[in-house]
Specification:
Structural class: mainly beta
Number of helices: 2
Radius of gyration: 23 Å
Largest sheet: 5 strands, antiparallel
Distance between the termini: 59 Å
Shape: globular
Strand content: over 45%
Helix content: under 10%
Length: about 400
Amino acid sequence: MNMSFIKLFRDSLIIAFNKKIFITSSATQWSNELDSTVPLDKGRPRKYFNADTDSDDEEDGQRPESKDSYRNKAKDHIVAMDVNESHSLLAIATGDKTLYLFEILEETANTDRLRLLSRRLVARSSSCMKFAPNGKFLIICDKGGDCYVYDCVDYGKPGRWVLGHMSQILDVLIDDEEKIITSDRDEKIRVTKYPVSHEIESFCLGHTEFVSQLVFLKTPSGQHLLSLSGDKTFRVWTYERGVEIFQQKIDHLGTKLTTTQLQDGSTLLAILCYEPTKIIIYRLYSTEPVQVERIQDLHVKSNEIFSSVVFDRQHNLVALIIDRNTEEVSQITFRFNQSNTNFVQDSLPKLFKDERLPYVDTVTFMFKKKFDNIKDYQDRKRKRIEEKGNK
């Protein structure tokens, strides 16, 4: 899959890939490129519980030069993104270990849509991030398995470590600023209390491959957790107790998902599949037990792949499409028909002129490689025993 992101912001979409940020609506499209020359705020991330007393700030707020500085400059593309709609905040992480925090401004003629609030250093290259619902802080997770909290009120404050996994964290959710839910490459989903993050409330165990995405699922009986995994299943959990209440097998490996709730309380679920690339639409009914119906499969041309997907306010499905041959990027919409719960593709996709996004396989390496070094040992041991018995 490609490193691209698409989020809904009111009546607009925020799209990010490479070093570009686009804010698009039905009538307009605004774009801007990240400015990596803006000085970093002082202070490095602090991996201590009592972080406020730790002092390891940089003197000038700049990243120290290292043998990796050239390589970092070549890796300043966007690797994670999140939006807080109620407080008009946008967070962007780049591969050169930088976190940008923006305020999203109202659309007016001939003005920027983003105002940079801070540019801070993160410990490692980021894998995922999530704003707290109140917009006061941001949790950002890295490929080393650590999670840091970044203040979104005191913009210059450095990040503070809150929890860690023994494996790469792939997704994170925040439940009412009291629980942090994380999933990792080692099949685990963990529910951690916050801010007392040394207390683990539960584990949701059952997946047999990496858990790529988490989404809250609202039902009449309360809020549940929906998880998507490389084991070709998605599951529904009562996450406070770590209990699985539903499991659905998928034909192909799903890597990304997006949901939208219909007026009757049911939920549309779109799963982006990896090789062959397609989107499978399911409808989940909030019954006891949960019921699911497969609605439709969406396809693109053989030379194209789906990169990112999101539902808009009208339950239309918006996707980014990458052409494998030309590396061109386009935005396509599948219109939702309420009467028959069907999706129809728009005839004219929106093109991102002069933008290219090469295809990069970021899924295959997520599967853990298994080595059997016991068989060779047992064969050698058996051979020694046989040779000793023949003497």
